[in-house]
Every structure is written in structure tokens, then in C-alpha cells.
Amino acid sequence: MTNASDLPKPTSFHQIFSYRSQDQPNHTGFYYPEPVNAEHYRELTFKGTDDLINHLAAQYATLLPKADESTISKATPKSVPNPPMVVATLGSNNFQLLLTGLAAQRMKHCYIHISPLNSDAGILSLLESMDAKVLIADNVFYARAEALAAQTEGVYLISMIEFDPVDELKKDLETFNYDKTRDEGENCSFIIHTSGTSSSAPKPIGMQTNPCLVALRAATTGTSMALPLAKDPKHRILPEIINSVKALPNADCLVFHPILAEAIWETYGKKNSPELEYLRRLEEVAVGGGKLSINVANELRDLGINVRSAIASTEVGAFPLRCEPTKENWDLFVSKNDYHVKWEHIEGNQYELLINDPPDLALNLGIPKGGIYRTNDVFE
């Protein structure tokens, strides 16, 4: 049996779980709402997670088309030596979605989760621009996915395999053999996309893995990630967020959208409600997926809540920059020198973020040796 210490450095997201399944097999990697009423958490170990990734990969291997000249993406960056087949998902933001994406990566495919919040036109633009040939949809969004697939030539529509992880582990799992030591550093195994606006389509960005998922942070540091105790994964309400923090006494970080941060201020902050005490206990409350009002951020910080910005740049995620809040600027960012980030002056107090080379497990942007990548993200 191969030990984690015998393996080289992980070069893709799914490989991290193979490592953790061997050096921390019984450590709880994930907490997710139990399926009946979402009032309590169920726990999943790193080994259980890795076993389920293999279990899903084995099943999808029989459902997905073969990766050949007709299915591999013709939109793959030239810097990627082995163009992959692009597998997209349209589904609820839950643990099953994460497992599905990891299973696609383990099968050597490139994975993109398409947010259901996008318009149909935006989703079609993403499928076509990335030349995705597979669309996996859960039962909530299957009818919509079916209509979208009918408008896109050559797309295979697959029904998402769904189960409760803890209950599934009690069954005989299928196995999926792959080389845990293979170097996937030059692969493009994940694609994120910008949200798009009413005047522009979402922009896909090819990556080696996903720097935006909190799961990556949990797996790489050997800690844990929890999904909110929400009955509806598409609509999480404030009491469910507070109850989730209360149910996890050792939680140290909460990540959510600016809309929720603003709702917390309106509902609890203005009255300095007792619920705020659960947020004060956290080491940080990280906001991502949009820009939070400066006034709201400062009000929450004045109440003793350590609000930070989770992601500095749409293009490159969290890796090249580090949030170091000050009293004057709660979302102040400094560059990490090891990623060769530079600032190019535009005008006045505006600067564009430039990056010379991609960090490990983050980007495959096709940056030529000695070249530079323009993010088109403007900072003040």
C-alpha cells in the first residue's frame, strides 16, 4: 500500500483527497446537513470522501462518452499538452456537486460547474465557448438542462448520481483504479467562470484546480469544511447560517456572499443582537462572490466581527493576494511575492493586476515563459 509520505507533491485537487485518506483517514473533512430536515450535521472523513470519489468515477465511466477526437475540447489552451473532455454540471450547491466534480477530475476530464444563477444565454455561451460535450444535471435542474442541451450540438445530457454520502458508504462501493503518483500539473482540470452581466457573457477561465472552493483550503490544511444547515441549498436564510455556526463550536471561518453580510447588518447589526456573538467568536468572516459595501464592512468590523475579503481577483482567485484589513481600508490587499504579481498603473489611483507565472494548484492560463498575463481586474 502506498503511504502519503511516499507520494510526490499533489498536482491536482482530487489527488489531495488521496493523500489525506492515507495520512488522516479518520479525520472529519466535511460536515453536511442530514437529509431529512437539515437540523443536524453528518460527518464524512477524508477516507470516506476519497472512496466516494472513486465510487462515482467508476459509475460515470460507464455513463459518459469516451474522450476522443469528437469529444475533447477544441477550446483547450495551447499550453495544455493533452486536451481534455470538458464535463459541466448544473446543480444545487451541495456536497454531491463537489463529489461529482472531483470524480470528473479523477477520470482525467476537465470540470466546470455552471452556476444556475446564470441566464440560459449565459449558460449556452459557456458550454459553446469551452466546447463542453457533457452536461450533468441533478433532479432540481434537469428539465432546464434538457432544454439547454437541445440547443447545443453534440452535448450529452447525464442525470447526476445522487445519494447521501454516509448512507452510501454502508454499501459495497465500486472501485476506480488510477495512478496516484501521476503528474497532472500541466492538465487543465477545472474551469471557473465570471458571473457575466446583462451586457456581457460569463468568461471561462481554465485552471489546474479550483482556488475558490473552501474545500481546497480544508483539504490542504487538514481541517474541515461545513455546508450550512439549510433545507433548501438554493436559498439559505440568516437563522440557518447562525444555527450552523452554533452547531460547530470549533468553527473558525465563515464564508458567504455580500448579500448575506448586508442582511446580517440590517437584521442583527443595527440592534447589536445576541446572534452577533457567534460571529465574533470566529477568527474571520470572509466575503466572496461580489463586492461588499465599505460602510457595511466597517460597521460589522466595529461590532467586533473580523470581516475580510475572501477573493481579491475574479481572474486568479485568492492565491496571488492576501487580505490585510486596516481601519481605513477593510479590503486592502498585498501581493504575495512568490507568485510574481505586479501592479500596472492605469490612471489616477487605479491599477491593473498582472501575473507572471501561475501558482501551484491554481492556474493554467497559458502564460508563456517570460511572459505576462493581464487579468483585466482593476484595483484602487
From TrEMBL:
GO terms for molecular function: medium-chain fatty acid-CoA ligase activity. One of its GO terms (biological process) is fatty acid metabolic process. This is AMP-dependent synthetase/ligase domain-containing protein. InterPro entries: ANL_N_sf (IPR042099). Belongs to the ATP-dependent AMP-binding enzyme family.
